[in-house]
Amino acid sequence: MIGREAEEDELQNGLTLFSTSSDPGTFDEASKMKVWREAMKQEIDSIESNNTSELTNLPVGYKKIGLKWIYKTKLNVKGEIEKHKARLVAKEYAQKLGVDYNEVFAPVARWDTIRTLVAVAACKGWKVYQLDVKSAFLHGELIEDVYVEQPLGYKKEDTRKVYKLKKALYGLRQAPRAWYNKIESYFAQENFEKCSHEHTLFVKYNSDGRILIVSLYVDDLVYTGDDIEMFESFKHSIQKNFAMTDLGKMRYFFGVEVK
User: What pLDDT sits at residue 187?
Assistant: First the structure.
């Protein structure tokens, strides 16, 4: 056991030193390292706590979609390791249009929109904040019947059974659309107005004419405005509906540093 722990320490140290090129390519590689085993457990816990699927028999006439693990070491703005992320992903190439999915389109914020948002905030002296949705696609509700195999490392005793998805998994062709529909319905319930020219930009006014502006880029949200109380109310509300990481003031957004 001591030898195993020492080997793991060496592997983890190597991962720290060469993180950009040493992300595991297979489950067998990742299962040998404690950091990746913990990352996979966190992903499975997230899927289970979200009630994403249920174990069942594969119905006649249906096929199961394969799953794979994707591993990524995430770095912060200083190039230091922020976290090790293991993502369970569906093999979307096995899906057929009209059988496994129909609508797939989901809008994504344009960079012009993000730059304009930051420019307006700079001109008016507003602060810009950022939130990150944890496992965003797992919130998207499916309307199709989709069955997937049991994931490597987490198979139940009866390996013949499959999982029927209630919500989307990363990799499914309809996952981005399902997530967008979910978050769009939240903004509608909270009385935000959606911009007619940019469907990922949402605006809300209070009775005093104060404003809150939110831009959505898949699972990252940036927001700004002129009312701190609206900020806090929005943050509290959205964290009740989705698991969120509060990143504070906007500092680093998709490779762009913001001051």
Answer: 96
The DSSP bridge partners found for residue 203 are: 193, 213
**Per-residue model confidence as pLDDT tens digits over 214-247:** 999 988 999 999 999 999 999 999 999 998 889 9
Q: Where are the domains of the chain?
A: 2-257
Tokens linked to 93: 């190439």
User: What is the dihedral sign for C-alpha 53, 57, 61, 64?
Assistant: positive
Mean pLDDT score, 29-42: 94
**Cβ neighbours of 83 (radius 10 Å):** 12
Question: What's the pLDDT score for residue 5?
Answer: 44
Binning pLDDT at 50, 70 and 90, where does residue 104 land?
Answer: low
- Overall pTM surpassing 0.90 (yes/no): no
Evaluate whether 123 touches 73 at the Cβ level (below 8 Å). no
- Structure-block tokens of residue 117: 């948002």
